[in-house]
Amino acid sequence: MSLERQVRAKLASKRNPDQEKEAQVWIEGVLGAKFPPGELFEDVLKDGTVLCQLINKLKPGSVAKINSSGGQFKMMENITNFQAAIKAYGVPDIDVFQTVDLWEKKDIAQVVSTLFALGRETYRHPEWNGPYLGPKPAEECKRDFSEEVLKAGQTVIGLQAGSNKGATQAGQNLGAGRKILLGK
What we know:
2 strands, mainly alpha, two-stranded antiparallel sheet, Transgelin, CH_dom_sf, CH_dom, single chain, 8 helices, extended
């Protein structure tokens, strides 16, 4: 099996049809329109127009011009504009797919992951009251401890210190020792 075929098989195995369906239902709910029947999920998203419409619904005016015709570079520009808009919306760079992941259908699982990151980000925008995608992100949980509680905690030896009720790792040797030979 060639390396390219192995890579494609590995990427295809990362795809989760349930997550793709969930993302599709969310997009349809936000846009108020269904995907064309019989078309694949990635084919509907490929030209970037649906993605640009999605971010414009979440935050109006995010993508000023959506290219609906033109060559492949105009369609890829839609994807790039979507990526820039979701970064401005608050989605971290690490969660954003590469343009070729969608355009060449190289990693649709990463595209779905980006859609889930965008769906999670909608929870942080109080102006959005439409449907949400994915779990709600955790919020800060600040705690204030009294000086008495903090001092009591200083006397406790945590299990990270390498001790567990008298049992330690002292004296354990795994594998051969390291030998340094000088002069050879």
